[in-house]
Amino acid sequence: MARRAITPKGPDWPPEKTLPFLQEQLQKLQEFKGKTFQEVDQAESEWEQFTRSVIIHGFGEDSQNLSNFYMARNAGIYNMMGISDHQRQLNFEERTSQFESTLKSSIRELEATISVPASNPPAASARPSGTPIASNSDQPLVLISHSSKDVELASALVEFLRAGLLINRIRCSSVDGFRLPAGVRTDSQLREEVNSTNVLIGLITPNSLASAYVMFELGARWGTGNFMIPLLAGVTTGEIHGPLSGLNALCANNDSQLHQLLTDVAKTLGVTVQNPASYANQLSVVRTRSADIAPSMPVVAAETIPVSAKEQRQREIVERKVQKLTKEAINALRIILENGRIHPITLEEELHLNPIAAQNAEVQCFASGLVDRHADRLLSVNPEFREALEFLFQEQTKNSS
Questions:
Q1: What is the rounded CA–CA span in Å between residue 187 and residue 357?
Q2: Closest CA to 22 of 139, 109, 144
């Protein structure tokens, strides 16, 4: 009588149940690093058995995920005549590395299949109905809007999020490994991701407050009504004006608020915050680099500076000229757009998503940044426009100094 073939067991856990267990096992695996194979012999055996069981429940016995797990378990060099303790240690280290890669790959696969809940937003800022949040596995889950001058703090924040939430789908355009894909149109890609990413963290520093691009990104996100967290470093809440002032901001130099940042992001993404001990070092780096950022210079109230009538008239003339040149720049951009001479976007997409600058009467600074991006095309329309460009650049330099 023919022997009946055994049907491999299929997955019987949903991704939502499998994901936190694999994330927990990945964290426990980190505890093996830096130790000898003798020290973790029993713990590794228990870890292997439970992890294997989770993978079977989540992916099935005939899955590639389980095959990868078995391959990782057999990593290293073996000999029928036996191997030395030194080789055993090398095998253990290689095995740990392969286990880590296997689990990270499975975790990313699960993250891509889980739809992010649209309800129960974090308490830091209620997210009203707006554009859909990202579910595409190619889209970042978290985008960090920042000034390139704050790359060290931004890099520390990336590592903090990775350690605390075990996520890799992060966009941070100044940090290697998390930059925009090669070959994409920077403006259009950032515009899309600012609108669609699940969580936007605005790194608010003196540098970012002076950056037209960062203000544009935050204004665009605010316009969508989707969730974002202002994270302050080197500035106080009193220095935040316009729509952003209505959002609860967190401070990057405060341990408890950094813990809250992880909790709030985790709730929105539907992931689990790891044990605080696993990200204590990364939290410390964020706090230290935040404290290193020099606070912005205090602004002297205008009414305390005596201004002569002549100086006041000159200032009014300059302001009118800036407004006039800004209108000229916008009209020239309109001509370019209507003629289809640049990427087909609407003028409203370029202008109306910057309520922060508008609220603070800093339209000229924003317009300067806008004109800078299209300077060559504007000059191709009207060579005499160079004077206006130079004047706007000078005004922007004065305002940022």
A1: 19
A2: 109
